[in-house]
Design brief:
It contains 26 helices and 13 strands. It is α/β, with parallel strands linked by helices. It folds into two domains: 340 residues, Na+/H+ antiporter like fold (Up-down Bundle); 314 residues, 3-Layer(aba) Sandwich (Rossmann fold). The strands form two sheets. Strands 3-4-2-1-5-8-13-12-9-10-11 form an eleven-stranded mixed sheet, sandwiched between helices. Strands 6-7 form a two-stranded antiparallel ribbon. α8 packs antiparallel against α9.
């Protein structure tokens, strides 16, 4: 309507509703932007979570579920079935606020991915990762250049389709590090040897590819635009912008770390300033002709990975970004997919063919150098598939190109569906050719029972805390290292990875620098093991390592180290700790899960140490008094392995061993099977040792059922410092009747569970032993 001055004015649209009974709601409450935004967010999150609940049992990634939810809410489904509802809820001009949130989410997602990446890893990787990364860049880019510049114009009649097909060919040659890292985490192989090679190769490829594309685009722009002076100035300011981030903000980040006391969080004002820098870098990137997430990604790369700054940023921004903004981004990407716009079959076939050929070229470009690097065929196939996958980074880039009208809606729908198909097929194929659960289980026997008396005993000793190291040292001291039978100890300090994606295994013999996360705690634990080596000079060979990894993948670090070092035994600390009064002061289910996974995958025997020793013990000193050990023998592989370790301890003059042979009362029948024969022969050797060694005692105990077994075990702990027992026993035996149903810790077995119960308050430690799991030969 016209105002008094003759100008035409428009009634402002109120953002917030005044209530359903207000006169301002004559057009409906969805007329207000804030109300519509709230309903949009509620629908998008409800549908994405619902679809994920349905598809997670099929091992579909969240990317697939959340994007499919967007397709349901977009013009493909909702717009086709209920077009009026779709127009009201998601009008073309009414999603501007959702679009702004998705761009904000993409910026912070790329920033956090940069924070999790460690560029210095490029200088530490071997020739294998460099070869794979180089081939995976050169071959696909060479193919894309050759096809788009040479073959394409002569093969496609419709010249208007050249830029689109060329765009698909070029973008298909790219696979980003964040997508590969997320895939490895979903597959639970990020800490495996294959996962480490994939991460290193992807990181090298991302850095080289980003540099190449950046320079190529600007040189092409300089050569093509009329005003070359403007182009050169733009390139100069772009390089100045990147240099400011790298050489200006990196020292600032180091200063923030120095200002943060150890074990203290970074001040909130610093986090706020970094968030402001993320937004500023996105604005600068967009105005310099680059994609807006490029600046935040480079900024994230300059942040030192790990605590205190990297982990704090991950903790403060991770939940908001990964839990809120990223799902919103993926659902919005799905809403932009309009399958009803696909009409030209010729165009569909050309684009899909370009996509399939590009994917095949990427797979070959990784597979061949992997074979040349002497990887197995299955591992090479799995690595090639992993390195060729695409995901959120590519989808978000495609949406940006649609918004800038670089891509048509038809092409975008095709390439987006191709990415989703890749995200579904690649994990399935990798799981088919690469069974990570059987990686370390082999045919070769690596246990104590099958080791000779003059053979070096190789043990991987794992510790999370200082108390773990002190408890394990006591067991190692009793293991009787001699000149004829030395002990090789591979001490592994396990540290949780915070604010990073790439796991790190530090070999302290190579003088590798530790990070701020592990430097002080690792050195304390390493010093404990070093003192043990010094007190046993010439008898013990120690190598110290620190594994920095996510807890759900720590078992891979343990198994891989044991596999590489040909260890016969892994000693793990129990997930509970007791005070000197017998009270439970520490209980961590994460450590419990780690121990269970190690037992399922270990390439050798495993021992879980339930340490109830006194807190103030001098664990780094040699045994100066008699160390009393009890061995509980019921029969089976694990008991025979535990007895073999106990007999080795009994060779020490400072160890007194008592072997308890527990058998069933009034059992006149003899089992004529191979297991019973092995048990009899093993015990015969133990009884012979009793006649020659005065520090070995053999006792036979008869019990009727499980309760009598429990009573006997409780009485045994009165006079011993360490009780050794096998983990697995025959479940149908009467010796364990009633104990199986009440077991709370299945990873310790029925006897181990009984000895680790909170009812025992005496300072007696328990070592639960599981013999190496042997892989079954295929028929």
């Amino acid at each position: 309507m016209d105002d008094e001055d003759g100008f035409c004015g428009v009634d402002p649209i109120p953002i917030q509703s005044q209530g359903i009974w207000s006169k301002s709601n004559a057009k409906g409450f969805l007329y207000h932007d804030l109300v519509r935004l709230q309903i949009q967010l509620a629908l998008m999150f409800t549908f994405s979570q619902s679809v994920h609940k349905l598809l997670k049992h099929c091992h579909f990634a969240r990317l697939v579920s959340e994007t499919l939810a967007g397709i349901v809410l977009g013009p493909t489904v909702l717009g086709l079935v209920l077009p009026s509802v779709e127009e009201i809820l998601f009008p073309e001009e009414g999603c501007i606020f959702v679009e702004m949130l998705t761009k904000l989410g993409y910026m912070f997602f790329m920033f956090l991915m940069g924070v999790k990446m460690d560029p210095s890893m490029v200088l530490k990787v071997g020739i294998k990762a460099w070869a794979i990364a180089t081939f995976s860049i050169v071959v696909p880019l060479g193919y894309a250049t050759f096809v788009s510049q040479t073959l394409l114009p002569g093969k496609v009649r419709n010249k208007s389709k050249h830029p689109t097909t060329r765009f698909v060919i070029v973008t298909e040659t790219i696979s980003s590090f964040p997508v590969i890292a997320c895939l490895l985490i979903d597959l639970k192989i990020v800490n495996s040897e294959l996962g480490r090679i994939a991460l290193a190769s992807a990181l090298i490829r991302d850095i080289l590819n980003t540099t190449f594309v950046f320079l190529t685009n600007y040189l092409y722009w300089i050569a093509s635009v009329a005003n070359w002076l403007v182009a050169w100035l733009t390139l100069f300011f772009s390089l100045a912008f990147i240099s400011t981030i790298v050489f200006g903000l990196y020292p600032l980040f180091l200063w923030i770390i120095r200002q943060t006391p150890e074990a203290k969080p970074v001040k909130s004002v610093y986090i706020s300033l970094i968030c402001f820098a993320v937004l500023g870098s996105a604005i600068a990137s967009d105005n310099l002709g680059m994609m807006y997430p490029f600046g935040p990604f480079v900024l994230g790369l300059t942040v030192p990975a790990g605590p205190p700054l990297g982990s704090t940023l991950e903790k403060r921004l991770g939940t908001f970004t990964m839990g809120l903004l990223t799902p919103l981004l993926l659902t919005y990407i799905g809403m932009k997919i309009n399958l009803t716009e696909m009409h030209s079959m010729r165009s569909i076939v050309a684009i899909l063919l370009a996509y399939v050929i590009g994917f095949t070229i990427k797979v070959i470009a990784v597979f061949l150098p992997a074979l040349l690097c002497k990887m197995s065929v299955k591992d090479a196939i799995a690595l090639a598939l992993i390195m060729s996958t695409q995901g959120i980074v590519e989808l978000a880039g495609y949406v940006t190109f649609v918004q800038t009208e670089t891509l048509s809606e038809e092409t975008y729908a095709l390439v987006a569906l191709s990415v989703l198909l890749t995200a579904v097929v690649v994990p399935f194929l990798v799981r088919s050719v690469y069974d990570y659960s059987r990686t370390y289980i082999g045919y070769q026997k690596r246990n104590i029972l099958h080791s000779t008396d003059n053979e070096e005993l190789r043990i991987v000793a794992c510790a999370h805390k200082q108390d773990d190291a002190m408890g394990i040292i006591k067991v190692l001291e009793a293991s009787n290292p001699t000149k004829h039978s030395p002990i090789a100890v591979f001490a592994l300090h396990l540290v949780e990875l915070l604010g990073g994606t790439s796991p790190v295994l530090i070999n302290h013999q190579l003088r590798q620098k530790t990070t701020s996360l592990s430097s002080s705690r690792s050195q304390t634990i390493i010093d404990i093991f070093n003192k043990y080596e010094q007190h046993n000079s010439g008898l013990v060979n120690l190598q110290a390592f620190t594994a920095i990894s996510m807890p759900k993948f720590m078992h891979d670090d343990i198994c891989l180290l044991a596999f590489d070092k040909l260890a016969s035994l892994i000693i793990l600390p129990f997930h509970k700790k007791w005070s000197s009064q017998g009270r439970v002061i520490f209980n961590n289910n994460v450590l419990k899960n780690i121990n269970s996974k190690v037992m399922d995958m270990a390439p050798c025997s495993v021992g879980v140490l339930v340490d109830r020793g006194k807190v103030n013990r001098a664990a780094t000193k040699s045994l100066s008094s008699m160390y009393r050990v009890a061995m509980i023998f019921l029969g089976g592989d694990d008991d025979r392995e535990a007895l073999a370790y106990a007999k080795r301890m009994a060779n020490s003059p400072w160890v007194h061993l008592t072997i308890f042979r527990i058998s069933q009362l009034e059992n006149n029948t003899r089992e004529a099977n191979w297991e019973s024969i092995l048990d009899t022969e093993t015990l015969k050797d133990a009884r012979h040792k009793c006649s020659t060694n005065g520090n070995v005692v053999y006792r036979e105990e008869k019990v009727k059922d499980g309760p009598e077994t429990a009573f006997l075990l409780h009485s045994v702990g009165e006079d011993y410092d360490l009780i050794m027992v096998g983990r697995r026993h025959k479940s149908h035996t009467n010796l364990l009747s009633g104990l199986i149903e009440w077991a709370e810790l299945p990873e310790l077995g029925e006897i181990g569970d009984l000895l680790a119960s909170s009812e025992i308050r005496r300072p007696v430690s328990v070592l639960v032993v599981q013999q190496q799991l042997m892989q079954k030969k295929s028929k």
